[in-house]
Amino acid sequence: MTDLDTFRAETRAWLEANCPAEMRTPMQGDEDNFWGGRNAKFASEAQKVWFERMRDKGWTVPDWPTQYGGGGLDGAQHKVLREEMAAIGARPPLSSFGIWMLGPALLKYGNEQQKAEHLPKIARGEIRWCQGYSEPNAGSDLASLQTRAVPDGDDFIINGSKIWTSYANYADWIFCLVRTDPAAKKHDGISFILFDMTSPGVTTKPILLISGKSPFCETFFDNVRVPQSHVVGTINRGWDVAKYLLQHERAMISGMGGRDGGRPLGQVAADSLGTDAQGRLDDPILRGQIATFDVDEAALACAAERAVDLAKAGQLHPAFSSAMKYYGTELNKRRHEILMSAGGIDALEWESVRSHDGARARAWLRTKANSIEGGTSEVMLGIVAKRILDLPGA
Amino acid sequence: MALVLTEEQTMLRDSARGLIGDKAPVAHLRKLRDERDATGFSRDLWKSFAEMGLAGLLVPEEFGGSGLGCVEAGVVMEEIGRNLTPSPLLSTAILAASALVRGGSDAQKKNYLPKIADGSLIAALAVDEGAKHRPSRITLSATRAGNGFKLKGDKALVVDGHVADLLIVAARSSGQPGDVDGLTLFLVDPKAKGVAIERTVMVDAHNAARIGFDDVEVNADQVLGEVDRGGALLEAVLNVGRAAVAAEMLGVADEAFGRTVSYLKERKQFGRLIGEFQALQHRAAHLYTEIEILRAAVLKALQAVDADAAQARLAVAVAKAKAGTVTTLAVQEGVQMHGGMGMTDQFDIGLFMKRGRVLQELFGDSAYHTEALAEWKKY
Fold first, then answer.
1. What distance in Å separates the CA atoms of residue A218 and residue A126, rounded to the nearest whole number?
2. Helix (H) or strand (E) run with residue B304 in it
């Protein structure tokens, strides 16, 4: 038996013994995510137990170094852990923009003090982060952002506003792009800075979406004082950090289709539509759409697996995450269109116990943002055209 | 297993790319087509393939082969697809070799495998009968007669059937069309009495035949595998073939795409390079994404077949189904973006479209394999 086989056997046994049965069922709504933070609330005892056990093993961030609260696993071990968790349908113990986005950026660009200060708190779910990138007039054209940070002694004074700050109303800290040199070219005068959301002058306002919910907020900064030492990387070179972080964000969003733990579409559809005499889904066109979707989804899963392996081999094109983000989000939208078709009239109920308050319709509406947030599909295609295909003037 | 090529596989790809790109680029196919060559491929080239170990790619070393696997076969097939190279690699080195390796008796292996490996024997697998690939509905009958059987029926799209020294024929020895059991594979001499071979010139100028069997007598020792139990063997061999064809389609798609992107960078209209137009950039970027996803699915399928994984059929269905849609898109977009030039015989891009169409049908199109996946998942 190789070391990896041993690791697999031990991991399987540990998960079997430690993952509560309730945490092996598909997640129904956002309340099934545990987001951590100062005001963290667990939806159930099982969620708490599962989180704490994984946290104590460093497996909320299995591939981070142990000194920062991680599990210290190498690439192959991490893959084994993911596979074994998937095999029993284990839910992620902690959902966190700190893990998905800020952590990788800090590991690469943060100084030792910043890493030691922030990474363990992310790993242990103690601080919940939000992202301050987009502004009302700087969405897809992110680099035209206007939030100003003006030096004042050892601090910056920050003024401006951000939009689409997911869960800003629940977040403890924000990682934020601010303009520190208005005279420079638009990519060159931006800094990446961290601060506490309880700082005087920070306010948030939820934005109600077509789904009837509001994961997003507007966030306003009115003379917010932040030490200059909170800048990650070099002042005015924040665009490098921002881009690196966006790759992780895009990788995360592209994986959303597979991550939601949803039941196979064919099964969902058969439950609501029934089957014909041959045991086939009683809607041949929908059955074909589902099968075609399944082919594309399985192929995407291969590509995601390959991207991890390519990265490990140092062969992954840095802009590839844009291609994956584009494909994954378009596919996830298709998935939810099929779910709505399969649900038919039942899926349209908005306010009822039977429909879990319109859970399916709300999820369907939510997915429409997938191809907008984190860079629109059109922006992703533009990046692929320019950076991978090297097309002229792209 | 990591979804990237190993160092050895990369070296094999590079040397195959060198050999094939050098000796059998698209111009090679054009020449054979324009001369209406009776063989349709170059025997000299096939000899070079054999010397490089490609003819015996899947043949175990004890029978003179290279003893490699499907991933290696796929790597070479991708290069074949890139260059539209006519060669018996699929029919002989991949399909016939894996049929014999998986189902052959010791005597059959000893007799045929060394000849496949040294390039002296061309073999062809005869499966399809109707317009579409439906192996379970095989009707070509094998009726017991004396010590052996009599074969009666017709086969279509037998790749390299016009030049084969050996035919591997799937026949119904019992049961009804649609039954899984009741199929038997036979090794048939194409010169045997009652075999009628008609070379069919296909749209892609590649090599295939329609073959008729009129009470062709075969002995018991010409049975490959077990009588009435050939279905599973056939399916296993077809899966190797499907994964290999998907790899060839990946080569077709990727090359058509590469040529299209180059064209976008050199063709001017309205005083600008057409690659500057966002409408075309987005379509090119979409196509790139689809091809990369196909690439991963194809490698997954090849690895699964090599590992004999329980999920191999599923992985192959995904790869062949995806190859069908992506390659179709790639060649169609290729012709469209080449504009009027794409419609001319002088430009190669149309040849890729024709080849893509043939490979789409070969061993099941996208619909066939998508349906197979739905069956597998039982909905």
1. 24
2. helix B278-307
Best of B266, B292, B373, B377 to disrupt the A interface (most A CBs within 10 Å) is B292
Whole-complex ipTM: 0.94
Which pLDDT score, from 0 to 100, does residue A249 have?
A: 78
CA distance B283 to chain A (A): 8
Give the tokens for residue A66: 């142990």
Say whether B377 and A264 touch across the interface (CB within 8 A). yes
CB contact under 8 A, A303 and B292: yes
Which pLDDT value is given to residue B82?
98
Its pTM stands at 0.89
- The DSSP output letter for A102 is I
Query: Has residue B273 got a pLDDT over 70?
Result: yes
The residues pairing with B218 across neighbouring beta strands, listed in sequence order, are: B149
Cα→Cα distances A333→A249, A326, B312, Å? 18, 11, 28
Question: Per the CB < 8 Å rule, is A306 touching B299?
Answer: yes
Question: Is A305 touching B (CB cutoff 8 A)?
Answer: yes
Dihedral, A324, A329, A335, A337 alpha carbons, nearest 10:
-150
Please tell me the distance from the alpha carbon of residue B371 to that of residue B321, in angstroms, as a whole number. Answer: 9
Distance CA B188, CA A338 (A): 49
Instruction: Inspect the interface and report whether the beta carbons of B292 and A385 lie closer than 8 Å.
Output: no
Q: What is the pLDDT of residues A227-242, one digit of tens each?
A: 999 999 999 999 999 9
